[in-house]
Hints:
The complex is a heterotrimer.
Chain A lengths: L3 H18 L3 H16 L1 H6 L3 H28 L12 H21 L11 H18 L3 H19 L8 H28 L15
Chain B lengths: L1 H18 L9 H18 L15 H27 L6 H19 L3 H19 L5 H36 L6 H7 L5 H19 L7 H8 L2 H28 L3 H23 L5 H22 L2 H31 L15 H14 L6 H15 L3 H27 L16 H19 L3 H15 L4
Chain C lengths: L4 H26 L9 H11 L10 H18 L16 H22 L3 H32 L4 H12 L2 H21 L27 H23 L10 H25 L7 H21 L1
Helix pairs in contact in C: 1-8, 1-9, 2-8, 3-4, 3-8, 4-5, 5-6, 5-7, 5-10, 7-8, 7-10, 8-9
Amino acid sequence: MQNLPDFILIAVILLNFFLLGTSRLGACVQAVALQGALLSLLPPILSGPSVHALSLAGGAFCLKGIVIPALLLRAIRKLDINREIEPRLGYIPTLLLVALTTAGAFVFGDRLPLLAAHLNSLVIPASLSTLAAGFLTLITRRKAITQVLGYLIFENGIFVFGMLLAEAMPLMVEAGVLLDMLVAIFVMGIVMNHINREFSSSIDTDHLNLLRE
Amino acid sequence: MLLETIILLPAAAAVLAGLVPWPRLRPLLVPAAALTHLGLVCRALAAAGPLAPAESMLGIDSLGGLTLLVVSLLYAVISLYALGYFRCHPDWDNRIFTACLLLFLSAMSLATLARHLGLLWVAVETTTLVSAPLIYYNRNKFSIEATWKYLLLCSVGIALAMLGILFIAYAGLLGHGEANIQLDHLLASARFFSVPWLRAGFVFLLVGFGTKMGLAPLHTWKPDAYGEAPGLVGGLLAGGLTSVAFLAILRAMQIMTAAGEQAIARQCLLALGVTSLLFAALFVIRQRDIKRMLAYSSVEHMGILAIGVAVGGLATYGAMFHMFNNALTKGALFLSAGNIHRHYGSKRQCEILGSLSVLPVSAGVFLAGFLAIAGSPPFAVFLSEFSILRGIFAAGHPLLSGGFILLLAVIFIGMAGTVLPVTLGPTYNETGTPGGHRETLLTAGAPLLLLLVVLAMGFYLPTPLHTLFSQAASLLEVTPS
Amino acid sequence: MLSHLLPHLILLLLLSPLLTGIITRTKAVIAGRRGAPLLQLYFDLAKLFRKGMVVSSTTTWVFRAGPVAGLVVPVLASLFIPFGGIRAPFSFNGDLVLFVYLFALARFFTVLAALDTGSSFEGMGAAREATFACLAEPTVFVIFIVLARVSGSLTLDAMLSSLQSHIGHPAAGVPLLLAAVCLFVVVLAENCRIPFDDPNTHLELTMIHEVMVLDHSGPDLALILYGAAMKFFVMGALLVSFFLPPQPTDIVTETTAFVGAMLLLAVAVGLVESAMARLRLIRVPQLLVGTSLLSCFALVLLLR
């Protein structure tokens, strides 16, 4: 528990609580950025400073910590998005759900068959908890931009799990994954822009209900 | 080198399309690239033996080759249609559309040729990203909603698939001491893998790529996206992209088979397949929008493919054959539906009644395509569905086969309730014929060509194709040792 | 243990009004003012005790009981916790439950006294006070469970005096830090500090605690102010014991360290008050629930 990765992972879990509990959109984006930046420090710490780990860390730091949050903050400014998060489900119920899923992640994480080296690590609980937080953001938040944030949190959860498997992905594939994520956010930003235009300056996904049976 | 060319050629054409300043010449790049692509694919398939050494990132096996052939063939015909389509809208900006269309082919080719699960994932995610602008081509409220749902649902689904890939890698690390997710490597060592992680990984892969493929209950983006996309994009999504996603699921099946976990994988796939048939039957009845109806028909056929592979034996062969038939027939249906939509400016049943008298070829293809996709005899779809049904009987599931026939009948009746009035019904003439885009050689000829291929395959199946289907099916059946 | 009683009480009774002065002074300095003298609360108390008292004719003895309970309870509660080197005068297994419920008792009387006036504003304040206290109480209990688990003891005295040796320990450090953060939030909430309540506000509609004591005057008001200062001191002592130096030395050094830490805590509270604005009332329950969940998370981390 005294070593650095565990502190980072605990900070990541605490950020999940903050993300689902805060009512300010800007703070939410910054928290996702911080989460991404913290996570990008993990590869060199966990698997030693190899070229692979360092370039992965650098790429992840730039994308998750700087470029994508900057894009989102710019979108908030340009599209004049209301600074309040508009939840479908109140803050307290969502916070309770995060707490439940996090507790579940810890209980479940202890029951999984793991390598001896990973037995007491926080990686699995942190990953599951972050995945759940991402899902909750996707489900319980109304704005298009918060759904993008949910997707990002979800990706962060997957990134945490990837820490168990340092060598599974060749560097080229890792780069492809990160690039895909960047393009995804970029395309989502463009679509948000168009939603904003079509529905007279509102990117509330509740307007997106024209197509139904 | 050939495989790299197959992937890079459309990508290079896409870059070129982005640079070419003449909007009237730019569309010519699509058929040029598509036809060359088809030629290269045929050469690659004709070359005997594996084209790439084992343990490489790219390679062609019969499963990937079959999917690649389906994609390339469908794309080549649709690219001809695209020429005619761009002539109908000469004043629309086609730079992004053309570039994305070409990148789409490149990404799908990469997905079929990838021998590494990570690379496969990257390719499939790329197909999502480059097809989003294609769906939004009509630029209205409806298409933006469809695009957003498609983008978000598929991205999250694909993210789940990534989790599944990581789980499988961890299964390898735990059971085998090595987290290599190169496909040959996985197949060789899968029997040592940790079973719980492998199963969890399979479920996540199934849910993730199942979202992309449109298996119920993960299909909710499908009617919206297919309904709002232009006809040729609908055809590419329903025929090409679903096959690619299906291939990704089949890769997961291969791994499960190699690990001796085939039974549980088949059960999962069977459950999703039956659910898809049920959902399709429920929603296709009284469906008054022809493109949404086609989307539910696509859900149905994804269900049939899943059931075919889940039952195994002869049904697997039927599923391979069916993947081919479904792709081409869906292409014909979407292209002709697009023609009808463009002519009337509507895709609601009540506004496009009796189209056969106005658009004889398109409406004729639409009607015949409906008969084909519903599994009527002279068409090849009948043969493939019949093989699957025989497979189900042979595997001893009388209840399943009964339900299968019943649901197919319900869907047939449901679709007939929409298709027959649209094509044969009394002409609806109160508002006249708005829009007035007539059919041209290219826009009407392309769907006709696709349908003729399906018809011809119903009478005569070329031996190389038969071998390809059998080999692909055998990859899913035999445990490589 | 009774030998500790006298120094314990002296420390509490003499030092507690000073903390309030330090908080006010910190805020003044940050805001660029000179501020009230550090000993202002002592002067206020002396003045108020000398004054007469106006009591509404509609009230009963309950109205007078509120301030008394508000003064007695912190004194009683303080007897169960150690002040640095000075061990708790009384301790028994499970005294932590008594500790929590003593404060609940004081709140009960304050609320009753507020309701006794029949004023709608005071009723409103009472309702808010009761609600927020309900939300803060689980946090305190969970923190105590964490402490009990870490120290393996059920008496406040043993729990708090052994804390310093555990906080550096690998498995317990992070949960204890989280518990300390939660406790800090609870201290702010229970003592009506910003961001929960503004002790200086003059708008009844936004007040929580202060609105309940509007009708008190003279010696009664002095009792309330003194009681509030001592409550802050007692809860602060709880928090400070997380951070005292681990090596046991002589009693004088430890007590000096304790007093210094208390003064630092007052400065920290002053800094928080300068840096933050009061939360909207609707956000207060959210933050308190979040804090309880955080403390539960600390417990989960500890138990795995």
